[in-house]
């Protein structure tokens, strides 16, 4: 009760939800997907194992995995008419703007044949989104650099196929480095789901009106774009480049602590984690693997990042406010080392997060649900009369 009015019991049902998919303990830095710790899943499984787990609740048997992998990897092409959508964008459009548009446009290619009350239709929609997100992401990149789209290949892993579509050209096939392909796979896993974050809550709210899954995922992509959420990985790289030299770190730490300065230390802090983000630990190890594989372990930005992390973790402001590196702190350094441009980083977050978004959508509409209707704390005028009386 807030004095003005008492919250109706329905408020809680619209402001929170029940789910069996992911558990987070922010104080202890614990992240479980269907009960499995994220570090085990990232290090001992592959991304399609995790997609299956999020969707169906169990890790796949070898037969189930073979069937699932075939279904995903043999639907990675998009309708040729979808290629036309890209031509309507300026070449310098942000790839997230393109993704919001073309993923929403998938509705036009599946909408009529999709009955979301049908379990099999829901499953096919989930599969098609997981199949096609990497293809659309790579197409957004190719369009921005004026190169022809590279068609997917069925003989490559999920991560390897993405790198192929990003970097192969008709003049030269990209040779997929298995270490980089495995790193992409791990990074997609580390982004796969994260409970009721802003973008997943957006997908659930959109889905609660009965909107089709492609439109719901487009809404999730839009929410993810913000620099406080998925846009942070791009913001981390921009911040490290702005810091430019280890000698400038103290100045930026001071700015991050200054309440009158809007500057925040990108890649630090979290709405839920008040401990180390367990994903950041795996991401850091993956970063070391990739940079050493590419022989760039002396990358100046990595040096700034490592020093920034050390200083921040010892600084009493950050310690008192429990601000630790989050999932976005290292991913951008890996992407940059692989040759992925900064404005594609959040697109890769969206690719990785797709199974989480669609698993939450599927979980919600597979049982009884009501339209989400968050309430408010009204702070406006009491009723008054236009006559001024
Ligand atoms: C993601 O929700 C999810 O699960 C998201 C995500 C996912 O997988 O979906 O984990 C992905 O979005 C990770 C977060 C990426 N964003 C960033 O790295 C941007 C930088 N971080 C901040 O913008 C901030 O930490 C947020 C947005 C992440 C959280 O904001 P909050 O909830 O306001 O932070 P908080 O409550 O923990 O803040 C406590 C205090 C505040 O100061 P006071 O108001 O108490 O004086 O710490 C301050 C904040 O001002 N603070 C920071 C800071 N983050 C919080 N100060 C300096 N630098 C920062 N990065």
From TrEMBL:
The active site is at 270, 328. SUPFAM superfamilies: Citrate synthase (SSF48256). The keyword Transferase applies. InterPro entries: Citrate_synth-like_lrg_a-sub, Citrate_synth-like_sm_a-sub, Citrate_synthase, Citrate_synthase_AS, Citrate_synthase_bac-typ, Citrate_synthase_sf, Citrate_synthase_typ-I. CDD domains: EcCS_like. Pathway: Carbohydrate metabolism; tricarboxylic acid cycle; isocitrate from oxaloacetate: step 1/2. One of its GO terms (molecular function) is citrate synthase activity. GO terms for biological process: tricarboxylic acid cycle. Keywords: Transferase, Tricarboxylic acid cycle. The keyword Transport does not apply. GO terms for cellular component: cytoplasm. Transmembrane segments: none annotated. It catalyses: oxaloacetate + acetyl-CoA + H2O = citrate + CoA + H(+). Pfam families: Citrate_synt. Belongs to the citrate synthase family. This is Citrate synthase. It comes from Saccharospirillum salsuginis.
């Amino acid at each position: 009760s807030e004095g003005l009015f008492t919250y109706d019991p329905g408020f809680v049902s619209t402001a929170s939800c029940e789910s069996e998919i992911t558990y987070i303990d922010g104080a202890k830095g614990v992240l479980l997907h269907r009960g499995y710790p994220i570090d085990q899943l990232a290090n001992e499984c592959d991304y399609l194992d995790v997609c299956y787990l999020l969707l169906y609740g169990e890790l796949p048997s070898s037969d189930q995995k073979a069937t699932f992998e075939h279904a995903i990897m043999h639907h990675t092409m998009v309708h040729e008419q979808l290629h036309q959508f890209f031509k309507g964008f300026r070449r310098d459009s942000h790839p997230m703007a393109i993704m919001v548009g073309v993923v929403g446009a998938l509705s036009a290619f599946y909408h009529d044949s999709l009955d979301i009350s049908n379990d099999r239709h829901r499953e096919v929609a989930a599969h098609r989104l997981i199949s096609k997100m990497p293809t659309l992401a790579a197409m957004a990149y190719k369009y921005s650099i004026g190169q022809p789209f590279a068609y997917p290949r069925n003989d490559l892993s999920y991560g390897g196929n993405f790198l192929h579509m990003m970097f192969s050209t008709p003049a030269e096939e990209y040779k997929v480095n298995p270490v980089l392909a495995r790193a992409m796979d791990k990074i997609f896993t580390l982004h796969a789901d994260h409970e009721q974050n802003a973008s997943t809550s957006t997908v659930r709210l959109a889905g609660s009106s009965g909107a089709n899954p492609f439109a719901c995922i487009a809404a999730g992509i839009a929410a993810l774009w913000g620099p406080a959420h998925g846009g942070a990985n791009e913001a981390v790289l921009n911040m490290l480049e702005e810091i430019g030299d280890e000698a400038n770190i103290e100045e930026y730490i001071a700015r991050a602590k200054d309440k009158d300065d809007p500057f925040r230390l990108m890649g630090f802090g979290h709405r839920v984690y008040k401990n180390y983000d367990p994903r950041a630990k795996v991401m850091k190890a993956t970063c070391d693997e990739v940079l050493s594989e590419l022989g760039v372990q002396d990358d100046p930005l990595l040096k700034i990042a490592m020093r920034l992390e050390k200083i921040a973790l010892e600084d009493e402001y950050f310690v008192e406010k429990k601000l630790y590196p989050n999932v976005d702190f290292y991913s951008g350094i890996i992407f940059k080392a692989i040759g992925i441009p900064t404005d594609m980083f959040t697109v890769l977050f969206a690719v990785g997060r797709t199974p989480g978004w669609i698993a939450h959508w599927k979980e919600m509409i597979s049982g009884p649900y009501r339209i989400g209707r968050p309430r408010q704390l009204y702070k406006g005028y009491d009723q008054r009369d236009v006559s001024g009386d």
